[in-house]
Amino acid sequence: MMKNVLAIAGSDSSGGAGIQADLKTFSAHGVFGMTVITAVTAQNTARVIDVQDITPDMIGKQIDAIFEDIDVDAVKIGMVSKIESIKVIAEKLRKYKPKNIVLDPVMISKSGYALLEPDAIKTLIAELLPLATVVTPNAPEAEKISGITIKSIEDMKKAAEIIHGMGAKNVLVKGGHIGGSHSTDILFDGKKFHVYEAEHIKTKNTHGTGCTLSSAIASNLALGMDVANAVDSAKKYITSAITHSLSIGKGNGPTHHFYELYKKAGILTE
Predict the structure, then answer these.
(1) CA of 31: how far to CAs of 1, 100, 227, in Å?
(2) Can 206 be counted among the known catalytic residues?
């Protein structure tokens, strides 16, 4: 039986990040994707022009519509910019109690646009972190949540411990922003650290990588993997997607969500 995964996130009109990236990732993993739209962005590979938030009432009704009808095997939460929206999502998830929740604390777009209101960060920490099976901040996001500066692997581990102490069951701190020849991610499960290394890929086409990784993790959890293996498989998926990323647009192009499937199907992609 096909597994069902729900993405609660914003729409990216250019198709590389947000809900669009989530749905592509779900499809690539063989799970059925569903959506709750939190915001509509006018954006492309180079910039975010504007954001229009969906009302908290409508966000709540979208969540009700899914859960009253369909079994949800995992939930991925992406862009949620307003305090009221965060609160209604947390209220609904506490009501419906999905087994797996992956929280990607999206704060800033690749082009530098603030996607999470500064005063909403405290609400996200208080309301959504304790519900998360896995939270997936990159280094700058982990700095904002933990309150410490991250310059090294040891700093990443310390931040992961702090964020775990805030209630998240598993914390994946992504080290792609730190630099070096390898991209190192650190997973902390409350007892031990898991280290995931991949060669740093030199490309500007990384639009939507965070959305894609967190959606891959949610897909793998829905498929029955434990957290460590779900992250490992997702890391391999995003590494391939970045390696074969697409030079679309004038800014940061998107990753290739279907490269492995296209290759198996004999569809020419390069």
Answers:
(1) 10, 14, 17
(2) yes
In whole angstroms, give the CA distance from residue 10 to residue 80. 7
Choose the catalytic residue: 41, 136, 184, 209: 209
For this structure, is 209 an active site residue? Answer: yes
Catalytic residue among 76, 110, 158, 174: 174
Q: What is the DSSP letter of 200?
A: P
On the question of pLDDT at 177 being above 70, the answer is no
C-alpha 163/C-alpha 130 separation (Å) is 10
pLDDT, residue 175, reads 86
Residue 137 pLDDT level (bands cut at 50, 70, 90): very high
- Cβ neighbours of 44 (radius 10 Å): 20
CA distances from 202 to 53, 72, 180, 205, 245 (A): 34, 37, 11, 9, 11
Residue 101, amino acid: I
- Choosing from 15, 16, 24, 211, which is the catalytic residue? 211
Answer for the pair 195, 177: CB distance below 8 angstroms, yes or no.
Answer: no
Contact 145, 158 (CB under 8 A): no
Give the active site residue among 15, 33, 176, 208.
208
The model's pTM is 0.96
Tell me, yes or no, if 211 is annotated catalytic.
Answer: yes
Question: Would residue 38 show up in a list of annotated catalytic residues for this protein?
Answer: no
Active site residue 249: no
The number of angstroms, rounded, from the C-alpha of 107 to the middle of its chain's C-alpha atoms is 11
Q: Which of 123, 136, 184, 206 is catalytic?
A: 206
Active site residue 149: no
User: Which domains, and CATH codes, for the chain?
Assistant: 4-136+205-265 (3.40.1190.20)
